[in-house]
Structure formats: C-alpha cells, structure tokens
Write a structure and sequence with these properties.
31 helices; alpha/beta
Length: 715
C-alpha cells in the first residue's frame, strides 16, 4: 500500500482538511470578537500561532491513533479486520461539509453585512469615547506631500505647501478640515486610505508629491474618497516657484469642484474657496517663510530659536508680507518667558503686539492674528475678551482646532462649563490626535468626574507622546494635592526625561510639604530663597533672593521672586512696594499686562493690610470679574477678594475635609496671611498639618516600595 493510500485509510487527509477549515473559521470569529472588545494585538497573534502549531499534533494523532468501539488505541494495536476507519471516514465527511457550510455562510455575511459597519469602526489606536466619527461628507484631511526632490532638505517646502493648501481649504465654511497636527502625525506611515480616514475622522483625503529643482516645481495632487479609495480628481502641475500661489488656489478650486455635490447649500450654489493671499511675496521670501514655519512646527528648542530668527529677518526684509508678521507674532509668543521660551515677557509682548498690528493692517482676514490676540488677553487674565478674538479666528477659519481648544480654556475660566465642553468636542473632532487637545481632554474629564473619558484620552496620549503623558500625570496628582504620589511621579519624570522641563518650583513645594527641607533648598537659588523665608531664615533667604534676581531679565519674574520671599518673611511693606511697581509702573507705561491673577490677589490683600482699603476696592472688583480656573477653589478665593474672610475660611475648611486641603494653602501659605486674624484659621492649619503628615508617611512608603522594586529588578 502506498503512503498516500495509507494516509487516506487512516483518515489523515480528512482530519487535516477538517482542522484547517475549522481553524480558519475560529480565527475569523476570534478576530471579530477581539476587535469589538478592543483586545490588544498580541491576543490574536497568540491564537493564530496556537492554531498553526496545532496542525502538527493533529496530523500525528490521526496517523498514530485510531478511534475504535473500545475507545482510542494506537494504530499498531488495532487488527485491520476489526478497523472502523470507514465509519469514521463518513463521519468526517459530514463534519467537513458542515464546517465548510459555516465557513461559506460567515464569508458571505462578512462581505455583504459586516464590512460596511467595520469601515466606520474606530481605529484600535483611538477609542470611540475620545473621538466620535462624523459622516457629513464634507470632511477632508491634507496629508503632507511627499518630497520627491533629490535634496532631502527640500522637505520643508513640500510640507509647507501641504500646510498652505490645508489653510486655504480650512477657510471654507462648507468644509471641515483635519488639523495639521493630526494629519501630519501620519507622515511616513504606510497606511491604507481607509485606515487614514478612520484615524483622522474624515471622508476625503488629499495626497500628493512635490519635486523641486532650482526654481522649477512639479506638483501632483489627488483627491480620494476614504471609504472606498475612489479617486475623485488628480492632476499634475509643472510651474516655477513664483507661480506657487496660483497653483495652490487652482488645486483648492479643483477640490471644491469635485466636492460640489456634498457642499451645495440651500441656495443651490457651492461655497467658494477664498484665495490664499492678495500679496504674493518673492519666491525667496516664500521659501524662507515655509522654512520658518517648519522650524516652528517642530516645537523643539532649537527649532523655535531658529524660527524666531527667520521670522525676525522676514518681517525686516518684507514689511508688506502679512503672513510673515502673523507668523512672527506666533513664534514670539511661544518663545516668550510666559509660554515656553526665554524672551522676557515685556520684550516679547511688545514685539507680538507690533506684528499683530502690522498683519492686521495688511490682511485683517488672517485667523492667526486673532488667535494670538486671544492668547494675549488670556495671559492678561481677561478671558472674556480672549473669547471674542478666538471666535473671530474661528469665523475666518471654521476648522481652526487650536482656536476651539483655547476657546474651551477661556470659557472654563469664566465658569461656562457647557460652552467649554462644546468647544473641546469640536477641537478633538478636528484634531483627534493632537497632544495639547488630548491633554486638555484629560484635564477636563478628570475635573468633571468622567473617568472613562480621561483614561481613554490618556491611553491615546501615551501612544503619541509618552513625555507629555508623564508630565500630565504628575500635574494631575499635584493639582489634587496628592503630593506624595506627585513627588514620586516627578522624581521619575526628571530621571526618565532629563532634557525636559525640570519643574523645580513644583518639586520644591512638594518637598517643603513633605518635610524634605534640605532637598527643597538644594534645587536652586529661587527655591532656597522661598523655603528659607518660610522657615524664617532671613539672611539666607535675602541673600539667595538677590543672587537669583541678578540672573533674571524679566521684571515680572524678578518681582515674583521678591514679593514671594518678602511675604514669607513677613516683610509686607517691601512686598507691597514691589507689587505696586508692577501694577502702576508697567501697566501705566503699557509695556506689559497688569499682573497675573495670583500677583493681583496678593496685591489686594497687602493693600488692605496696609490700611489702603479704598485703593484695593477697584482692583478687587476687577479681579472678582475675572473668575478663577479651579471651580472648587474659586468660591473661597472670590470671598477673600470681596473681603468675606470668615466665609472664605469656611469654604477652605470644607475643601480640606473633602480631601483638598492644599486649596488655599500652597505649603508656604504665602497668600493667606490675611486669614490668620480669625480663630477658625487654627482649624484649617490643623487639617493641613494632618494632611501633610499623611502625605509624608505615604511618600516614605512609596519610596521604600520603589527601592525594593529596583533591588528586585537588579539583584
């Protein structure tokens, strides 16, 4: 008997066929179930590996063993005259037929019933709770055009052209355009169009390539439906760099023409796309502008510094280039000491305002201008006016995700919770994988008890930007007074990300509350002054203060150092003089905003302490109108501003008993000296002291656990 005949006699072939069909069907069902429950990829990979490896033992078993009326026996022990393999063969045939019918039925259902639903399912990388899919038919993402030039350095040009097209399309109110941060996050990834559409939450995708050689440019562009990959339009343009604006407008016009069926309003007329610019700068200027914006978008320290230098040169050489002035305003704002840079605020603010005024005079329809204006008012603690500018930016660019995010923040500062949530929802739909947007989602959801939403957004954030996720996790612990956990998280953050912001002030404050005085004072001169003053070490505090002040160029920064040290030392007259200079000097000369909320708050209290209540009254009234970001803390602080100290104490005590004793107390208690005259203050002190002791014990426990874990990991 041949080997094949023997395989058939022992039913090895039939068993193998039955196993393969059953394994395929099982894999399909498992894939469907696991996808719906958002199981990690390794689960499915493990199932597939087990199924593949399982074929070998099944084949061996069917060869070596036989089913008999007495049970399973080794084949060598079975008398062939007594063998019932022919009976088993018929049962296997029926089994194969049944499983095959199931497989065919599943295939048909998957193709004709399940696939459409799968096409709109959320990507595993982004939870449905965080990003909701829209199906209006008017959403589009502009992917970064591929740089086909011989010189890789020309990539800034292809990226810049893509962003310009995005900005032109975004100005059309009939379109929802995915934000740059989300669409550019997919750069370099080899994804199917359908997957891109799902990740970016869009119906259409614009992609293309740019080949630049000297002043000649070849641009290819194609508009694709995300659901089925159908090409609605494509074209190629061979032009010079000088014609680049005409090409942008032409491409935008072709896109609008292709989408007219979805974009026709009640009037029956499609909404036109505005031209990209009325002023066409020289080709050299435009390329420098794209390069500056590319450096700015990098958000690295080196990139921001380079962008600032390029923007400075652009506005000097091309004073009629409105977009350059707008970019200069944005770059300078981000590079300021109050945002993420080192340019003294007074210098930065003057430059920003001049650029905004110049850009507005040249092109009042640039949405970036109004975004920056809004940021200026937000930094000046004037959220009401900031909202007006953010809304104007959105009016000019209905897809301006950053404007929606900042609108959400400003609305929350005014206590407009529903308005804040509405703006945030729009921001995350337009920019679903933006790091700043996800951070704000986590903060908002945490504050309002939406734990699942916060967890989902944090999960996505960890995938996109682990540094930002770790930083946010620390701040959440810190904001809620969980100083022991915050201290551990911040120590880990500084160890894991040494090149990032060290958060020295927060760490000093945490160490101070945890009784780690030496560690707090060792962090730097400013923290040494701060902590030494709190401990009453006058000479050490004043010496450290002056030494640190000599290094600071921003008057606001120096003032913060001075008044905080003076208040902690009980030198209230000296602190009042510093804050008076800020309020009356800088504000009168219009060289900076009045002061931050915290500075103004202490200023009011110092004026009252000095018997200048009439002078404090109008400032307190102005401060009360600004509101306070932390809703739970707001009530107490507003009562203090209004002079209702006993009510403020009651509210702070209530917060302390509800698990937030740090509200109103920052460890050094610098802003609450006005409360010490009331008997109830002792109750608040006692609650804070108890909280500090609990935090210190927990910190020691967590530190020991971390050390033990490290010893176990490295025996």
């Amino acid at each position: 008997m041949s080997l094949f005949e023997e395989l058939q006699r022992r039913n090895v072939v039939r068993v193998s066929v039955a196993y393969v069909i059953s394994a395929w069907l099982l894999a399909q069902v498992a894939d469907l179930v696991l996808d719906n429950i958002a199981a990690p990829d390794w689960v499915m990979q493990t199932i597939l590996l087990v199924l593949v490896l399982g074929l070998a033992p099944v084949v061996f078993f069917s060869w070596a063993y036989e089913v008999t009326p007495e049970g399973i026996k080794r084949e060598s022990e079975v008398d062939r005259s007594q063998s019932i393999t022919h009976v088993t063969r018929r049962k296997l045939d029926r089994t194969i037929t049944f499983v095959l019918v199931l497989a065919v039925a599943y295939f048909a259902a998957d193709k004709f019933l399940l696939t459409p639903a799968q096409q709109v399912a959320p990507t595993p990388d982004v939870n449905e709770e965080v990003i909701e899919t829209t199906a209006a038919g008017n959403t589009i993402a502009v992917l970064p055009f591929v740089n086909m030039s011989d010189d890789e350095a020309n990539e800034y040009f292809s990226d810049g052209l893509s962003e310009e097209l995005l900005n032109v399309l975004a100005k059309n109110p009939a379109l929802q355009v995915a934000a740059r941060t989300s669409s550019f996050s997919l750069k370099g990834e080899k994804l199917e169009i359908g997957e891109i559409g799902r990740r970016l939450n869009v119906d259409h995708v614009l992609e293309g390539s740019v080949r630049k050689s000297g002043d000649r440019v070849r641009i290819t562009a194609q508009l694709i439906r995300a659901d089925n990959g159908y090409h609605l339009w494509s074209d190629t343009y061979d032009r010079t760099v000088d014609d680049i604006f005409a090409v942008q407008d032409e491409i935008a016009g072709k896109i609008m023409a292709a989408l007219i069926p979805q974009l026709v309003g009640e009037s029956g007329e499609a909404v036109a796309t505005p031209a990209s610019s009325d002023y066409e700068p020289p080709a050299e200027a435009y390329q420098d502008y794209l390069l500056a914006r590319d450096r700015f978008n990098s958000r690295t320290r080196a990139g921001l510094d380079s962008a600032y230098e390029l923007a400075q040169e652009l506005v000097r050489k091309y004073p009629d280039y409105a977009e350059a002035h707008a970019l200069h305003a944005q770059v300078t704002m981000v590079n300021s000491a109050r945002v993420a840079g080192e340019i003294p605020w007074i210098i930065a603010e003057n430059q920003v305002r001049r650029s905004v005024q110049k850009a507005s005079a040249l092109r009042p329809d640039l949405p970036e201008i109004y975004l920056v204006e809004g940021m200026l008012h937000s930094l000046s603690r004037d959220p009401e006016t900031a909202i007006e500018f953010y809304e104007r930016a959105i009016e000019l660019n209905p897809s301006y995700a950053e404007a929606y995010r900042r609108l959400s923040q400003a609305a929350l500062a005014l206590g407009r919770t529903s308005e804040s949530w509405e703006a945030l929802e729009t921001a995350r739909k337009l920019d679903p994988i933006s790091v700043p947007t996800l951070q704000w989602v986590v903060r908002q959801a945490t504050v309002h008890g939406r734990e699942q939403m916060a967890d989902d957004a944090m999960q996505v954030l960890r995938q996109l930007a682990p540094v930002a996720a770790d930083d946010l996790e620390f701040h959440l612990l810190y904001d809620y007074g969980r100083y022991a956990e915050a201290g551990i998280a911040l120590e880990d953050f500084r160890a894991n990300w040494p090149d990032e912001s060290p958060h020295i002030w927060q760490l000093a404050q945490i160490y101070g509350n945890l009784g780690k005085i030496d560690e707090a004072m060792a962090l730097g001169l400013s923290t040494k002054a701060y902590i030494a003053a709190e401990l009453g070490q006058r000479e050490i505090a004043l010496s450290a203060m002056e030494e640190e002040a000599a290094k600071r160029t921003d008057p606001h920064d120096r003032a913060d150092l001075y008044w905080q040290t003076y208040v902690n030392l009980g030198m209230y007259d000296e602190a009042l003089e510093v804050l008076s200079d800020l309020w009356y000097g800088y504000a009168a000369e219009d060289i900076g905003p009045k002061m931050d909320y915290g500075d103004t708050f202490v200023f009011v209290e110092l004026l009252r302490h000095a018997g200048r209540a009439d002078e404090a009254a109008p400032i307190a009234a102005e401060l009360a109108e600004l509101g306070f970001g932390d809703e739970e803390a707001a009530a107490g602080y507003i009562q203090m501003v209004e002079g209702n100290y006993e009510e403020a104490l009651r509210l702070f005590i209530e917060n302390a008993r509800n698990g937030r004793p740090h509200v109103g107390f920052t460890g050094v208690r610098k802003s609450d000296f006005a409360l010490k005259q009331f008997p109830e203050y002792a109750t608040l002190e006692k609650l804070v002291d108890e909280w500090q002791e609990e935090q210190r014990a927990l910190y020691e426990e967590l530190t020991a656990a971390r050390a033990s874990s490290a010893d176990t990991a490295h025996p």
